[in-house]
Amino acid sequence: MTPGRADHRVRTDFLRDREKRMAIELRSALVPDLSMLSVALQALLGDGKGIPKLLRLRLLSVMHTPAGRAALRPMLAQPGQRRQIPSSVAPLTPVGDLSMETQIEALRSNHNDGLRGNLVEIYGDRIPQVWRAAAERPARWSRALGDTLADVWSGPGRDAWSRSRTALDSELRRHESLLDRGAAHTLLNTLSPRIRFDCGGFELDGRVKVPVGDRKIVLAPMISAPDSVVVENSDPVAVVVGYPLPGALASWSPAGLPVRESDDALATVIGHVRAEILRRLPEPMSMSRLAAELNCAPSTATHHCNTLESAGLVERIRQGKSILVRRTTRGSALVDLFT
């Protein structure tokens, strides 16, 4: 891939690996194309576990061309297999913030002669049948993929990204805070349960090794399904790690249009995820069910509930062998105040 330009924010720090006595450059970047590809694939997968139903339906409504769906379909993981995506899906390496429009234009104008080489790296000489049409006509495949991602972006994608921007900026501030405290290893090991960093490299799902060497590490938070992870390892300049931002898609209401953060006074006061938690707790609910409704990890739901509990807005109660969480009188009064 070709290094992409930085549109605005880049945070650079150096991680000193004591095991190998090496310095690794860390960067944080906002890269919407990783998120758009992730949610588009999750919408096509349609297993009901990844993204909210309303968002999935809106995504499917804009991904209506046969060529576009055909461009995405080879990237869907087969049962029992790990999804493997060639680096050609992102012609520009995001060494800094990279706009969606820039990546789309790169896809549309790219002959993508490297696609076959990418596929050989992944599969060897036996390229799967689902990839053969793309390998034979890579320029057509690249244009179709660019057109489809443009449809996703101009439809629900841009809206989802813009409404998550506050959470994304907050995540980049978390990066800065940890790096300021010299806690780079903590940062790299709290991106996703699927990712571990040690001794100058990443380990994905406990078995896939990704050595960093002297390359940069670019951390790119995504709005995506909770288990989505992207590790781009083919570029000589940077290893790009896309990881899911917990609760980023929680604003997609199960009943009608998504709630817009700018119109949500309660979210303005206490934050979007906590506002969603309060609204969903007029009756007691288990933490696992709450996390599922918020489309976030149970640990994320627990963290926000702990904060709400310390403010007297929710409380935990025992029901049989289960511990449930519910809104307090004060929490209900706060919801009513902003309704």
Automatic annotation (TrEMBL):
<dbReference type="InterPro" id="IPR051011">
    <property type="entry name" value="Metal_resp_trans_reg"/>
</dbReference>
<dbReference type="InterPro" id="IPR011991">
    <property type="entry name" value="ArsR-like_HTH"/>
</dbReference>
<dbReference type="InterPro" id="IPR036388">
    <property type="entry name" value="WH-like_DNA-bd_sf"/>
</dbReference>
<protein>
    <submittedName>
        <fullName>Helix-turn-helix transcriptional regulator</fullName>
    </submittedName>
</protein>
<keyword id="KW-0804">Transcription</keyword>
<dbReference type="GO" id="GO:0003700">
    <property type="term" value="F:DNA-binding transcription factor activity"/>
</dbReference>
<keyword id="KW-0805">Transcription regulation</keyword>
<dbReference type="InterPro" id="IPR001845">
    <property type="entry name" value="HTH_ArsR_DNA-bd_dom"/>
</dbReference>
<feature type="domain" description="HTH arsR-type">
    <location>
        <begin position="264"/>
        <end position="339"/>
    </location>
</feature>
<keyword id="KW-0238">DNA-binding</keyword>
<dbReference type="Pfam" id="PF12840">
    <property type="entry name" value="HTH_20"/>
</dbReference>
<dbReference type="InterPro" id="IPR036390">
    <property type="entry name" value="WH_DNA-bd_sf"/>
</dbReference>
<dbReference type="GO" id="GO:0003677">
    <property type="term" value="F:DNA binding"/>
</dbReference>
